[in-house]
Amino acid sequence: MPAISKLPDADVTRELATLDGWIREGDKITREYKFADFVTAFSFMAGAALAAEKMDHHPEWFNVYNKVRVHLTTHDAGGISAFDFQLARTMDTQARRLLG
Q: What are the tens digits of pLDDT across the range 11-42?
């Protein structure tokens, strides 16, 4: 992963306004997705995992049945970076495909 820096608070606020369902929790952005069932939630996680691996930027996430809660932060930058928003958009696109 190329060197990347933590975004200023104003940039984080501006970027969050362009995303649906994402909120800031300290030095992370967070969203919960709700799918029809476990298989669909797992399909989302598999697709998102492949995208995250290509970016070399991995989420912290939790799955219980049809729900997936995602936390994104860039540890190397010490907080929220542009990579977090890039991965959030990729995850949203993946979720939309599965939610119909």
A: 999 999 999 999 999 999 999 999 999 999 99
Structure tokens at 57: 């930027």
- Domain ranges (residues) in the chain: 27-99
**Assigned fold of 27-99:** Gyrase A; domain 2 (3.30.1360)
| Dihedral angle computed from the Cα positions of residues 66, 71, 72 and 74, in that order, rounded to the nearest 10 degrees | -140
Model confidence at 98, pLDDT cuts 50, 70, 90, reads: very high
- Tell me, letter by letter, the H, E, C secondary structure of the chain: CCCCCCCCHHHHHHHHCCCCCCEEECCEEEEEEECCCHHHHHHHHHHHHHHHHHHCCCCEEEEECCEEEEEECEHHHCECCHHHHHHHHHHHHHHHHHHC
Query: What residues are paired with 60 via a beta bridge?
Result: 71
